[in-house]
Design goal:
Helix content is 62%, strand content 4%. The protein is built from 35 helices and 4 strands. It has a 4-stranded parallel sheet, sandwiched between helices. The termini are far apart.
Length: 649
């Protein structure tokens, strides 16, 4: 072999063994080959290189198949098409080529009888992401298969390109309202710089549904360029568009919207518009906005008055506090209850006057004739947690309604201060039996030294690796109770909480020093509701990063979502798989099942974790393996040999 020849000139002279040794045995050689192949002028040489690479590593070979000259790619992709493997793996390999030549093969797979094959095919086209891919995805928006439509919209939203935005803009004028809905939904996922011009046009669309969906997405994007369009939308003839535009401007905290939002507090067509306007003014929180909210306290609709009260509670000024206190005498009990909650939410730190006002307001509410309001007062005092709050809770221990008394006991346990502990001890001698019993239940947790988390009962001790933390999985309510009501909760060092978009993290969670909060819905496929969010790859990547940081300084981990069954168990599986490493996917799933036997992980999150961790479907496979094994055991238990005869002998 001529050592002076260029790498391309050397290729024909290399035997298969020499080629493998030089280019396919180490990363440096693979990178070199990826740079050489686009320059190879002979198709036979390009085909030979790809064929040898496919024999060594299917994924590597597939990536290289897309690097050869465009005119050779149809031939290199035929090599992938001839591989005898599952349809799903073949789709994955075609996506890795990033070649337009793969698109016809993937389009053909959209007619496959298995839905999983069709969905992976449409997502693979999205991963290619070229102008040709955009054209096919736009066509797929019109598919008769609703799931293909959904994933086509999702894929277009994932492609950060002007052709994708242009295709979606065209789709906004489609005759089908379903296609229009998916198009504006997808625009909300695209990079703001690319999406804003299209969304501003959508705000003027003749279809009111397109307009309100565009308003929602403008609020999510949150860039100043969309403000003029949203301000115009506040005067839209359709009340849903006006309401959504108000919500978007509130989310953006845009002060220029305040005058118009104040006008909308008395919207003649819909109380929903007034409701959104009140919420938006609370988010903006300027003096002018507060003045508008004060007007809203006189609104004829109790929901609007309640929204204004809640918004004032987030502003935390004396003017706002006085207004909230006025609402404690509202004719509607739910408004009065929200006023009590709002007083508990006011940030009084460092402001003695504000503290006195809040205390006085809650003292008034404590005497409300409705037990619902008094229950809310007990909850608010638990949030405040001062010695004055403890004194108020002690008085509520004598309330005539058991629910109020019990909430007061729980709030004392939640506070956990010396004064609260003394109050609980004194409650052991109270008149009401439910107070005595509940105080006895909570006292050991708040008065003893922190105890180690007991995971023996979960049968986890056989599984823990040296770096893997002790994992607890819970619903959001269970997590709050765990953190507050158990001494073991003080051992929680890490918290991953997953909530729905727009729902704030419970204040109890701030007791945990290291936290990760992600917001998305429990979805496994896209839905065209702009308020509902599908988990994204970035969500999973952040969970993995959090897990790896946690493994450096191990500590107990609590993972929670609304019910502690789907999103949280998928996140916990991701954590365990990341820390345990490759090849331990079944062990990771065993850990999740041991911690939460009712686990039913969100499959889309699991797929994303498989992708992010490079596990090639092994995480999903671990769950399926366990499910199959459970079914086999059940069948075995029900077989004639294992059944007990109840017939006459």
């Amino acid at each position: 072999m001529n050592s002076a020849a260029t790498p391309i000139e050397q290729l024909p002279e290399l035997s298969d063994a020499q080629f493998n040794q030089k280019y396919l045995k180490q990363k440096q050689g693979m990178h070199a080959l990826a740079e050489i192949l686009p320059q190879v002028e002979e198709q036979s040489l390009a085909l030979r290189a790809v064929k040898l690479a496919l024999k060594v590593n299917l994924k590597l070979g597939s990536k290289l198949a897309g690097t050869v000259k465009p005119e050779f790619q149809q031939a290199t992709l035929r090599l992938i098409g001839k591989i005898k493997t599952s349809p799903l793996l073949k789709i994955q390999l075609l996506a890795l080529t990033c070649s337009d030549s793969a698109i016809p093969m993937l389009v053909k797979a959209l007619n496959h009888p298995e839905s999983a094959v069709r969905l992976h095919s449409i997502r693979a086209i999205g991963k290619i992401g070229s102008a040709a891919a955009v054209i096919e995805l736009a066509r797929s928006l019109e598919s008769e298969d609703s799931q293909v439509q959904a994933w086509a919209a999702w894929a277009l939203g994932e492609i950060d390109s002007k052709p994708a935005a242009a295709a979606l803009l065209v789709a906004l004028n489609h005759k089908s309202s379903g296609v229009r809905a998916w198009a504006v939904w997808a625009l909300g996922k695209i990079n703001p710089k690319t999406a804003v011009p299209a969304l501003l046009k959508a705000l003027k669309h003749q279809d009111s549904e397109v307009r309100w969906r565009a308003a929602v997405n403008c609020g999510k994007i949150g860039v100043s360029d969309v403000v003029p369009g949203l301000l115009n939308a506040l005067r839209d003839e359709n009340h849903i568009v006006r309401a959504r535009a108000a919500a978007a401007l509130g989310k953006m905290r845009d002060r220029s919207a305040v005058p118009r939002l104040i006008e909308l507090l008395h919207d003649p067509d819909s109380y929903a518009v007034s409701l959104r306007a009140a919420e938006a003014l609370g988010q903006i929180g300027t003096e002018t906005a507060v003045a508008g909210l004060l007007q809203a306290l006189n609104h004829h609709d109790s929901d609007v008055r309640g929204s204004a009260v809640s918004a004032l509670g987030e502003i935390s000024t004396e003017v706002a506090a006085v207004a909230v206190m006025r609402s404690l005498s509202d004719r509607d009990i739910f408004v009065r209850g929200r006023a009590a909650v709002a007083l508990g939410n006011i940030n009084t730190a460092g402001d003695a006057n504000l503290q006195k006002m809040v205390a006085a307001g809650l003292a008034i509410a404590r005497g409300d004739s409705e037990s619902y309001v008094r229950w809310r007062v007990a909850a608010a005092l638990g949030q405040i947690g001062t010695d004055e709050a403890v004194a108020g809770l002690v008085r509520l221990l004598e309330d005539e309604t058991s629910g109020v008394r019990q909430k007061a006991v729980k709030s004392l346990a939640q506070i956990g201060s010396t004064a609260a502990v003394l109050a609980l001890e004194a409650a052991l001698n109270r008149e009401f039996g439910d107070v005595r019993a509940l105080a006895a239940q909570y006292l050991p947790d708040v008065s003893t030294q922190p105890a180690a988390v007991d995971v023996e009962s979960s049968n986890l001790t056989n599984f823990w690796g040296e770096k893997l933390p002790k994992v607890l999985i819970a619903s959001e309510i269970e997590a709050s109770e765990y953190i507050f009501d158990r001494a073991a909760g003080r051992e929680i060092e890490y918290l991953i909480s997953i909530g729905s978009p727009g729902v704030p993290e419970p204040k109890t969670f701030h007791k945990v020093p290291n936290r990760l909060r992600r917001s998305f819905n429990d979805l496994e496929t896209p839905v065209d509701d702009p308020d509902r969010v599908l988990p994204a790859l970035d969500d999973v990547v952040q969970i993995i990063d959090f897990a790896l940081k946690m493994s450096v300084s191990p500590g107990n981990l609590l993972v929670c979502c609304q019910n502690g069954i789907s999103r949280s168990t998928a996140a916990a599986l991701t954590v365990c798989a990341a820390v345990l490493g490759r090849g331990k996917e079944r062990e990771a799933w065993d850990l999740v099942l041991a911690a939460r036997p009712q686990a039913r992980p969100n499959r889309w999150i699991v797929e994303l974790a498989d992708e992010a961790l490079g596990r090639n479907g092994k995480l999903a496979g671990a769950i399926e393996f366990n499910t199959a094994a459970q079914k086999a055991r059940s069948c075995q238990q029900l077989s004639p040999r294992n059944q007990v005869s109840f017939g006459k002998s």
